[in-house]
Design a protein that fits this description.
Elements lengths: L3 E7 L4 E7 L7 E6 L7 E6 L2 E6 L6 H13 L2 H5 L1 E8 L10 E2 L2 H9 L5 H17 L5 E5 L9 H4 L5 H7 L8 H15 L8 E6 L3 E7 L2 E5 L21 H9 L4 H10 L2 H6 L5 H9 L3 H25 L4 E5 H6 L1 H10 L9 H6 L6 E2 L7 E4 L4 H15 L1
Parallel strand pairs: 1-6, 6-8, 9-12, 12-14
Antiparallel strand pairs: 1-2, 2-3, 3-4, 4-5, 7-8, 9-10, 10-11, 13-14
Helix pairs in contact: 1-4, 7-16, 11-12, 12-14
Bound molecules: adenosine-5'-diphosphate.
The site of adenosine-5'-diphosphate (ADP) has 13 residues, from helix 11 and helix 13.
Catalytic activity: acetate + ATP = acetyl phosphate + ADP
Subcellular location: Cytoplasm
Protein name: Acetate kinase
Length: 398
């Protein structure tokens, strides 16, 4: 059996896990422990296409969930003995972590320190790391940072035009997120183009609940839409993306919002959800729009408008474009969003093949543009595979 990596994505109330074949990227076993800290904590996983659900004890925490994942693995002997390392997705690596690294006490401390920039994520990651170290004491554990992929951004792209001391003293700058996904789909695009990644100018749009878009010049990220936090940039499921910062001060000074209320408003009540007042789910909005719901149509129109604006500006940055890539739940599956976006880019030399656009969904990857167009691909992302490969590299080859 090939070597496998246990890939963990620990959130504040959930742990997504997958056993990844480091050679092929396949996931023979994957699942989620959710509602941690609540009365209905549960572990669900699929193995060989069979779904299993296990009730966890009331208020089960990360430690109990990981112990339970350990017990599930014990039931699959051959698979368990093929696991050679644990890879942790870590959202914020700041400027300190330029690449993935083997976790030692200093690295753990560094991830904890960065919690001031990503409080929900990084503290949950530390809890997950400590629990995984208890549950799998014999396996090397590696941290793979969402932000590391964007270390190639030039300073003039990652700085905000704020007083420079804020960057120097407090690290206020653009970091970028979804790095493993942009990394994966850019390499897949290079493969489809039959070119070395270093020869490729690409724009990769990861459109899921969170959405980000990256400009890649000669294989390296040179700009990206998410910023100091994952709030900046595109319209997302519940996040507003780009906004005049004065809206925040207006809400606080004139409408008596607290800082926490502004943050909740912009992160959890805005985006597709806030505009449509219906749902953050693109599928629901497409269905409702088809039934004539104007709010759903407006939310989708705003989503596409912002996306088109970013694509246009990134074309200006990367120079002659080799391919535009759609990925993430919406990018991989919504023929509608892809069609609406490309229709607005017709004057820039883009057009879709309707059949390919309709068929390239649900895990299928490939070209969706027609023969006259610049290349447009829809590519199913596999962030876990990037994490697994990096984990093996750090644990055994670095
Ligand atoms: P996350 O960022 O949480 O990982 P995903 O990448 O799974 O999210 O993307 C979730 C989004 O993908 C939701 O808005 C969902 O509606 C959308 N989506 C999934 N399948 C489809 C589909 N067939 N058509 C349109 N949108 C879809």
């Amino acid at each position: 059996m090939n070597q496998h990596v246990l890939v963990l994505n620990c959130g504040s109330s959930s742990i997504k896990f997958a056993i990844i074949d480091a050679e092929t990227g396949a996931a023979p076993l994957q699942g989620i422990a959710e509602n941690l800290g609540a009365h209905n904590a549960q572990l669900r996983y699929s193995f060989d296409g069979k779904e299993t659900a296990i009730e966890l004890s009331d208020n089960a925490n990360h430690k109990e969930a990981l112990a339970s994942i350990g017990r599930v693995l014990k039931q699959h002997d051959a698979l368990q003995s093929s696991i050679i390392a644990v890879g942790h997705r870590v959202v914020h690596g700041g400027e300190r972590f330029e690449q993935s690294c083997l976790i030692d006490p200093l690295v753990k401390e560094g991830i904890r320190d960065l919690a001031k920039m990503a409080p929900l994520h990084n503290l949950a990651h530390v809890a997950g790391i400590e629990s995984a170290q208890d549950a799998f004491p014999d396996l090397p554990q590696v941290a793979v940072f969402d932000t590391a992929y964007f270390q190639t951004l030039p300073k003039h792209a990652y700085l905000y035009a704020l007083p420079y001391a804020l960057y120097e003293q407090h690290g206020i700058r653009k970091y970028g997120f979804h790095g493993s996904s942009h990394h994966f789909v850019s390499h897949e695009a290079a493969r489809l183009l039959n070119k070395g990644i270093g020869q490729c100018n690409l724009i990769t749009a990861h459109l899921g609940n969170g959405c980000s878009i990256t400009a890649i010049k000669q294989g390296k990220a040179i700009d990206t839409s998410m910023g100091f936090t994952p709030l900046e940039g595109l319209v997302m499921g519940t996040r507003c993306g780009d906004i005049d910062p004065s809206v925040a001060t207006f809400l606080i000074e004139s409408l008596d919002y607290s800082a926490a209320q502004v943050s909740a408003l912009m992160n959890k009540q805005s985006g597709l959800q806030g505009i449509s007042q219906l749902s953050n789910d693109c599928r629901t909005l497409e269905e409702q729009q088809a039934l004539g719901n104007e709010n759903a149509k407006l939310a989708l129109d705003m989503f596409v408008h912002r996306l088109v604006k970013y694509i246009g500006s990134y074309i200006a940055l990367v120079g002659p474009l080799d391919a535009l890539v759609f990925t993430g739940g919406i990018g991989e599956n919504s023929s509608y969003i892809r069609q609406q976006t490309i229709a607005q880019l017709a004057h820039m030399g883009f057009s879709l093949d309707e059949t390919l656009n309709a068929e390239t969904r649900f895990g299928r990857s490939g070209r969706i543009s027609d023969a006259t167009s610049k290349s447009v691909f829809a590519i199913a992302t596999n962030e876990e595979w990037v994490i697994a490969k990096d984990t093996i590299h750090c644990a055994f080859k670095a």
